[in-house]
Amino acid sequence: MSGAVNVAAYDVTQDAAMLEGVLHVIWGDPYAGEGQPRVVYSLHDDLGVSHALSADPNANINLGAYNRLRVRVYSAESQPAVAATGVFMVSSIEIVGSATQLAGEVTAALAGAQDFLNIQLRWPGTTTDPVTAAWINTMMGGAAWPSINHFYRQASFNNIWITSTTVGPYTMPHSASWYTTNYPTNYQYLDVIFDDAVGLADSAAYYPNYDGINLLFNDEIDGYAWGGGSSTTLDGGWSGPVTWEPPWGYTDDPSGGLAVMAHEIGHGFGLQHSGDAVGGWNGHGREYSSCWDVMSWGGRSPCANAHYHTSYSYLPTHMIADYKDELGWIPSNRKLTTASSYSVQLFPLDTLSLAAGNYMMIKIPITGSRYYTVELRRRPNPSVTSASYDNFLPGRAVIIHDVDPTRSDQKAMVVDIDSDGDPNDSGAQFLFDNAFRNVADTVRVTVLGDGPSGSIYLKIDDWSLNYIAVRGSDNKSYHDWPPPSYDKYWKAAPTGSTLDGPAIVRCGSLLHFVVRGGSNVLYYANLNVDTGAFTSWSSLNGESPSAPAVTKDPTNCALYAVVRGMDNRIYFKTRSSGGTWAASWTVIPTGSTPSAPAAAYRAEDQALHMAVRGSSGNTIYYGKWTVPSSTWSGWTQLSGATPSGPALATIPGGTGLLLVVRGTDNKLYYKTWSPTTGWSPLLNWQVVPTGSTNNQPAVTVLGSNQAVIAVRGTDGKVYFAISDSPYLSWTTWRALPGSTPSSPSICKT
Questions:
Q1: What is the CATH number of domain 466-748?
Q2: I need a surface site. Which of 216, 264, 279, 575 has the fewest CB within 10 A?
Q3: Model confidence at 14, in pLDDT bands (50, 70, 90)?
Q4: Would you tell me the crossing angle of helices 148-155 and 133-141 to the nearest 10 degrees?
Q5: 638 forms bridges with which residues in the sheet?
Q6: Average of pLDDT values for 350-369?
Q7: In whole angstroms, what separates CA 208 from the centre of its chain?
Q8: Bridge partners of 515?
Q9: Is the pLDDT of residue 148 over 90?
């Protein structure tokens, strides 16, 4: 009967430098989350012997990454050392056979019927069971809500379904304390218990017919419920998901029930815990802190909207997007992998029925194997409890996870920007006008607003690509560089006011501001983007009736503030690379403008290039000031007309300039200049296909040669669009949170 799996007893005369077999991971979860989870590693060889494993702390090995794979493990320890501890210390590991992907990576989808065998078990001296076999089969395989089958059908988008066969009850040959006392090393008693249990049920079950096995006990095992995998040599051999359940893990106990059963079966399918990085919510550890995932605490009290069922206790929520993806349940055409997407529509995680390209998961690669996931969770139909297990979520919100497959547990952690140990509060729920930033990872995710079919619009970008600044309705200067712990898109400068949109440019760690303050006086300040320090405003000893412009020499961070004077002539003032502003303004010898000028410095020709609206007829003029020789080119009239000041930006790589203007029809037009051919096309402007503005546009060109245009829309909101590198196609315009009474400004790093 017994003997299918034996615990290794090492003989010092044998060579234990290498073992080969199937590696299993088992997770243990304490009653009511009152304690620390446990993670157990074992290798089952072809003789049916179970070997306790531990990773050599000097080897940087994540044994969990090899869960359910056939492997060969090696130890640098001597055989006597292994024999003394009973634990094989793994110093290196390799996959054996055709498998090439580690656990946690998407391989073939878990699909089809998952046939579970439930073995009812009694401890010696007991004669009763908490529930009947019929009750267990309904709880596990019932077609109606709620059941494990119904839950996994819904959570997997009908990729899998659970069938249930129950045998027993059988009386174990030893007490629970006997197992835990005699086989305590690395919780090897779990494999011994499994060995004895499948031996008892062998005459009633042919194990290769089943995909998973649940061991259902009539009393406690060790204060934990367990889920993972094991193996037996019976019936020609079997290996697969296994759970070890005390009564509270599968009955109506207030701290267990269907949510715990679904959780442990998830471990059986190879899923780790999730949670957050801090812990402490409701007195729980970090693995049991998230109400967004059945693999943490999803669906259980005191999560908001948790639902207690009289037969099955608390009901589970779905697992997170990353874990659904790990099991192969999210089609490739419904997930987006991107480091930068200026406008993406994200649909709720429960909307698989929508067409390809309607993304319900976003993956943002970071470094190595680490990445962020972005998902939109909601309560699909709260008025009909049985409509969805996600009705038991805290609410509707964009949820972000920090995913690191090298973690031995908690591969995915909720991003909670207030780090208060509660990943279910507003610090983790991103809604309209919320933004998440990670400085080290240069990632920014902004919620722009709601879309059709329950979707939401997001802006995902590398925060180091560009910055936008605006004048608020309170006349303060706002910028989109708040600190990481600040969850709004805009942050106000601590002091000062402006009559127009502030001009900005970044060089090094400083984001420089030039504004027109009260009485038309021009002021300067800067923000240290590394420390968040904002300087006080200092007067530039000049005045302007229009918004200023500012540009930089990228070779030394010298600045050039360019303005329209009170006499409508064009002036500029230089800030040296050492940080000192010139004592006086330099006037361009010819020309005038009724609007704000545009300026861009090109290091390749050491020239300050300018574009202005002419004094009559909405004409457009261009000229350049060569800095070393202090010479002026004169003004050249360009074709076209504009009722506002233009926008000008350098194109990286020394290839030229990009000029953007508002047309007389309020559409956006653009043309390029190169040092070899000049303005091209000479006569024809290109039009941005959609969008309009009543104000001066703003433009910058990123290192990828993609142009970003920002405008104030006719509704007062700030909109942006991005082009491809030849400027032939443009994205849909998307609004940023908030509104502004003036034109925005934009700059790149």
A1: 2.120.10.30
A2: 279
A3: very low
A4: 10
A5: 620
A6: 92
A7: 39
A8: 523
A9: yes
Residue whose pair of structure tokens reads 């006597």 in the numeric block: 80
- DSSP secondary structure code for residue 193 in this structure: H
**Strand partners for 295:** none
In angstroms, the CA 368 to CA 379 distance is: 34
Q: What percent of the chain has pLDDT over 90?
A: 79
Is residue 433 within 8 Å of 737, Cβ to Cβ? yes
Chain mean position to CA 131: 42
Owner of token pair 């908690």: 410
Gap between the Cα atoms of 281 and 152, Å rounded: 27
Is the confidence at residue 520, as pLDDT, over 80? yes
Least confident of 94-103, 248-257, 493-502, 681-690: 94-103
* pTM as predicted: 0.86
Q: Which amino acid is at 528?
A: N
Q: Which residue in the block uniquely carries the two structure tokens 């031996």?
A: 199
CA 648 – CA 699 distance, rounded (Å): 7
Q: Long-range contacts made by residues 477-485, C-beta under 8 angstroms, separation at least 24?
A: 477/502, 477/513, 477/515, 478/738, 479/504, 479/511, 479/513, 479/527, 480/435, 480/736, 481/511, 481/527, 481/529, 482/435, 482/437, 483/437, 483/532, 484/417, 484/437, 484/438, 484/439, 485/417, 485/418, 485/419
At 174, the amino acid letter reads H
Predicted pLDDT of residue 424 = 96
| CA proximity to 291, closest of 320, 327, 249, 258 | 320
Q: Give SS3 for 163.
A: strand
When the pLDDT of each residue in the chain is averaged and rounded to a whole number, the result is 92
Q: Would you give the DSSP letter of residue 98?
A: S
Q: Is 640 left (phi over 0), alpha (psi -120 to 50) or beta?
A: left
Token output for 662:
């508002």
Cα within 13 Å of Cα(340), Cβ side: 13
pLDDT band at 706 (very low <50, low <70, confident <90, very high): confident
For residue 434, give both structure tokens. 């919320």
Beta-bridged to residue 722, according to DSSP, are 708
Output the pLDDT for position 10. 37
Would you list the domain boundaries of the chain?
6-95, 112-269, 316-461, 466-748
Rounded to an integer, the average pLDDT of 593-605 is: 97
3-state secondary structure of 570: strand
Q: With 0-12 CB in 10 A as exposed, 13-18 as middle and 19+ as buried, what is 489? A: buried
Within 8 A by CB and 6+ apart from 84, the residues are: none
Give 607-656 pLDDT, tens digit per residue.
999 999 999 889 999 999 999 999 999 999 999 999 999 999 999 988 89
468 with 718: CB under 8 angstroms? yes
Q: Given this model, what pLDDT does residue 13 score?
A: 35
Short-list 721, 598, 716, CA closest to 648? 598
- 339's CB contacts (< 8 A; 6+ apart) are 364, 365, 443, 460, 462
- Residue 714's region, left for phi above 0, alpha for psi from -120 to 50, else beta, is alpha
**CATH of the domain spanning 6-95, picked from 1.25.40, 2.30.30, 3.40.50, 2.40.50:** 2.40.50
The residues, ordered by sequence, that sit 6+ positions from 649 with a Cβ below 8 Å of its Cβ are 600, 657, 658, 660, 699, 700, 701, 707
Instruction: For residues 48-74, give the mean pLDDT.
Output: 92
Tokens of 650: 């350098």
pLDDT in tens, 185-194: 889 999 999 9
pLDDT of residue 355: 87
107: exposed, middle or buried (C-beta count within 10 Å: 0-12, 13-18, 19+)?
A: middle
The listed range with the strongest mean pLDDT (169-178, 182-191, 722-731) is 169-178
